[in-house]
Amino acid sequence: MTRVRFAPSPTGYLHVGGLRTAFYNWAFARATGGTFLLRIEDTDRSRLVEGAMENLIESLRWAGIEADEGPHKGGEHGPYVQSERLAIYREHVDKLVAEGKAYPCFATPEELEEMRQKQIEAKENPRYDGRYRNLDPAEAKQRVEAGEKHVIRLKVPAGEDIVFDDVVRGTVSINTDTVDDQVLMKSDGFPTYHLAAVVDDHLMEITHVIRGEEWLSSTPKHILLNRAFGWNPPKYAHLPLIVNEQKKKLSKRDGDVSVESYRDNGFSAIGLVNFLALLGWSAGDDKEYYESLDEMAQAFTLERISKAPSVFDVAKLKHINFQHLRVMPAEELAEKLTPYFEKAGLPKPSDEKLHAVIEVMRERANVYPDYVEGCDYFYKAPDSYDEKTVKKRWKDDSPALLAAYRKRLETCHWDMETLETELKAVTEEAECGAGRLIHPVRLAVSGVGGGPGLYDLLYLVGREECLSRIDTALEKLPGQVTA
Ligand code: GLU
Fold first, then answer.
1. Which atom of ligand 1 is nearest to the CA of 11?
2. 3.40.50.620, 3.40.50.300, 2.60.40.420, 3.90.230.10: CATH of 85-239
């Protein structure tokens, strides 16, 4: 039975890369009939952020990724928050010390810094030099009991190749000469990430550790720790980096990296997860659109995760999200739009009108706000006119043509076909192309140069409102109507 975990540190928000990791773990559990658990790794007390855990859980829930076990769910392998497991780590580390596999180190931060400086001066790679490794255990014990400040370090063997099979990267070999005697327990009594993760992965019976590539270099430490405890390590799968367009690791400097910000900017949960899932994984075909998380989970295998870094391409994210919004039922979409009307300060129209706008906008909306402020002309008269469009499209004859069309709009039958026939009648009479009037009408009614089909626009805005907007445009835009 497979058991996997997503083990974020509560440092403020869920990173999009974290959501991808969570999704792969979840999908692997679903695909293999296993269990997916959430574990909060909060042992770095200097990086704690108030409310971060709740935020993580909420972001995962929004994305549709529910853990089978976790702090909010319970389960038989709890507690699932590391700061509630301190006694467990203590017990484990004590055992390693008693067996001579780990040892107390009394080096002060100043001492370590001095050591580092000397090594740098001597052009050596800075590393812990093992100065307390061979201290007499009895003396060490005495100093610990006397309350002297210390950390506990793992005895890492020298000059050994640690070789393991990574499901994604194949055979990986790292020599222990590049690995310091790892700190397992800090002087504040909290375990380091390495100790806590290894102990928990074992006690929580994790079979596969699926995590970001940045943890690859920690894996030999984890394998050595497992060996020290006499445990079999889990299988490892390290996910490829997510990079920006410059091929650098995606970071805060690249703008939005939090799941929340994508949610707030109007991406659907399924659109975002569908996009993230494809950053480093494909089912082996060209398929890019997945209707649901379950559909992806069914196609998911660890073996199809790629080694190569994946570029976070916002245009692609928009395109995938577009495909999801395009098929979302109008009722569902209308409900999702509510907060965006509030945010834009626009009145939410009747269901009937909103559903009609949705159908008209489906082929051009990438994110939720594209149905709201992106087409605010459906909900309110323009308060300005796009300058570029005015320059390009508003000609000397525009006022007269518009006025002639306005006259027909007063009485004509209000359907899209008639709206078009009447427009053509005006331009034929004036012996000019239809475009000569189409653009000024659009500008007058919407204030901008692009958007959905003109007759859709007019039809939905309605007769009275169209007439009034045309009047305003005739007043505000240059030129006089010369009858
Ligand atoms: N707490 C680590 C993180 O924040 C988890 C690393 C792991 O999955 O082992 O990414």
1. 4
2. 3.40.50.620
From 118, 149, 186, 252, the catalytic residue: 252
Residue 380 in this model has a pLDDT that exceeds 70: yes
At 480, is the pLDDT very low, low, confident or very high (cuts 50, 70, 90)?
Answer: confident
Query: Is 41's C-beta closer than 6 angstroms to any atom of ligand 1?
Result: yes
Domains 85-239 and 259-377 share a fold: no
Cβ of 201 less than 6 Å from ligand 1: no
127-179 confidence digits (pLDDT tens)? 999 999 999 999 999 999 999 999 999 999 999 999 999 999 999 999 999 89
* Active site (annotated) includes residue 348: no
Q: Measured in angstroms, how far is the CA atom of residue 113 from the centroid of ligand 1? A: 27
Find the Cα–Cα–Cα–Cα dihedral 264, 268, 269, 270, rounded to 10°. -160
Q: What is the mean pLDDT of residues 56-77?
A: 96
Tell me the β-bridge partners of 305.
281
Q: What is the pLDDT of residues 308-355, one digit of tens each?
A: 999 999 999 999 999 999 999 999 999 999 999 999 999 999 999 999
Q: Where are the domains of the chain?
A: 85-239, 259-377, 387-476
Among residues 84, 59, 88, 90, which one has the least CA distance to residue 71? 84
Distance (angstroms) between ligand 1 centre and the Cα of 211 equals 7
Instruction: Spell out the alpha helix ranges (H) of 212-350.
Output: 219-229, 259-264, 269-277, 293-299, 314-326, 330-344
What does the block give as tokens for 296? 């992806």
* pLDDT given at position 120: 94
For residue 193, the ligand 1 atom closest to its alpha carbon is 1
Q: Whose CA is nearest to atom 5 of ligand 1?
A: 7
Confidence band for 369, pLDDT divided at 50, 70 and 90: very high
Fold of 259-377: Glutamyl-tRNA Synthetase; domain 2 (1.10.1160)
Q: Does 15 sit in the ligand 1 pocket, CB within 6 Å? A: no
Closest alpha carbon to 363 in 316, 333, 327, 313: 327
Atom of ligand 1 nearest to the CA of 7: 5
5 lines ligand 1 (CB under 6 A): no
Ligand 1: centre distance to CA 476 (Å): 60
Distances (CA, A) of 167 to 171, 290, 307: 9, 24, 10
CA pseudo-torsion sign 69, 72, 75, 79? positive
The per-residue pLDDT for 483 is 53
Our answer on whether the CB atom of 215 is closer than 6 Å to any ligand 1 atom is yes
Q: Which atom of ligand 1 is nearest to the CA of 18?
A: 10
Q: Which CATH number fits domain 387-476: 2.20.28.120, 1.20.58.220, 1.10.10.10, 1.10.10.350?
A: 1.10.10.350
